[in-house]
């Protein structure tokens, strides 16, 4: 029997997905249904680009709803307080600097579902996160990234 996948995420990430799901079902879905209804009223569906566009949008919307429902069903809420306070785990922010003398960088390691690099949230599946997970404050770590190896020192874990 195949092992069921899980989606590691923080409570904040789960709550964000729940809000997105509610918006899709309560606000977005009725708008798309209305667009389809209006486009149908234009007559011949075989050459009706508005109808095709609305049906495509409906398909993407329903796909996203299904994906979110699946992720929430198999969500694995990460409790970053369950580990040592100086250990890098999912749900914690880690500050490190590339050696010998680069500027410090801070990222919060989150599940792939809530990753947002522009907001400083990186996926636990990313090369940097994989290289940092399980290590501790003040450790020097070699991280394997596509551009080569980088050596970093962990400055803060919170």
Automatic annotation (TrEMBL):
<dbReference type="Pfam" id="PF01272">
    <property type="entry name" value="GreA_GreB"/>
</dbReference>
<keyword id="KW-0648">Protein biosynthesis</keyword>
<dbReference type="Pfam" id="PF03449">
    <property type="entry name" value="GreA_GreB_N"/>
</dbReference>
<keyword id="KW-0251">Elongation factor</keyword>
<keyword id="KW-0238">DNA-binding</keyword>
<dbReference type="InterPro" id="IPR001437">
    <property type="entry name" value="Tscrpt_elong_fac_GreA/B_C"/>
</dbReference>
<keyword id="KW-0805">Transcription regulation</keyword>
<feature type="domain" description="Transcription elongation factor GreA/GreB C-terminal">
    <location>
        <begin position="84"/>
        <end position="158"/>
    </location>
</feature>
<dbReference type="InterPro" id="IPR036953">
    <property type="entry name" value="GreA/GreB_C_sf"/>
</dbReference>
<dbReference type="InterPro" id="IPR018151">
    <property type="entry name" value="TF_GreA/GreB_CS"/>
</dbReference>
<dbReference type="InterPro" id="IPR006359">
    <property type="entry name" value="Tscrpt_elong_fac_GreA"/>
</dbReference>
<feature type="domain" description="Transcription elongation factor GreA/GreB N-terminal">
    <location>
        <begin position="8"/>
        <end position="77"/>
    </location>
</feature>
<dbReference type="InterPro" id="IPR028624">
    <property type="entry name" value="Tscrpt_elong_fac_GreA/B"/>
</dbReference>
<dbReference type="InterPro" id="IPR022691">
    <property type="entry name" value="Tscrpt_elong_fac_GreA/B_N"/>
</dbReference>
<keyword id="KW-0804">Transcription</keyword>
<comment type="function">
    <text>Necessary for efficient RNA polymerase transcription elongation past template-encoded arresting sites. The arresting sites in DNA have the property of trapping a certain fraction of elongating RNA polymerases that pass through, resulting in locked ternary complexes. Cleavage of the nascent transcript by cleavage factors such as GreA or GreB allows the resumption of elongation from the new 3'terminus. GreA releases sequences of 2 to 3 nucleotides.</text>
</comment>
<protein>
    <recommendedName>
        <fullName>Transcription elongation factor GreA</fullName>
    </recommendedName>
</protein>
<dbReference type="GO" id="GO:0003746">
    <property type="term" value="F:translation elongation factor activity"/>
</dbReference>
<dbReference type="InterPro" id="IPR023459">
    <property type="entry name" value="Tscrpt_elong_fac_GreA/B_fam"/>
</dbReference>
<dbReference type="InterPro" id="IPR036805">
    <property type="entry name" value="Tscrpt_elong_fac_GreA/B_N_sf"/>
</dbReference>
<comment type="similarity">
    <text>Belongs to the GreA/GreB family.</text>
</comment>
């Amino acid at each position: 029997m195949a092992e069921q996948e899980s989606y590691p995420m923080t409570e904040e990430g789960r709550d964000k997905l729940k809000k997105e799901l509610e918006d899709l079902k309560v606000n977005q879905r009725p708008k798309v249904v209305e667009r389809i209804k209006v486009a149908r009223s234009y007559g011949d569906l075989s050459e009706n680009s508005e109808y095709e566009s609305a049906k495509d949008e409906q398909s993407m919307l329903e796909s996203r709803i299904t994906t979110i429902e699946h992720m929430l069903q198999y969500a694995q809420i990460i409790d970053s307080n369950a580990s040592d306070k100086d250990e890098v785990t999912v749900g914690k922010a880690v500050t490190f600097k590339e050696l010998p003398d680069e500027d410090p960088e801070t990222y919060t390691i989150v599940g792939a579902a809530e990753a947002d690099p522009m907001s400083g949230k990186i996926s636990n599946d990313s090369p940097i996160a994989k290289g940092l997970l399980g290590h501790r404050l003040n450790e020097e770590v070699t991280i394997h990234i596509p551009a080569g190896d980088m050596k970093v020192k962990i400055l803060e874990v919170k």
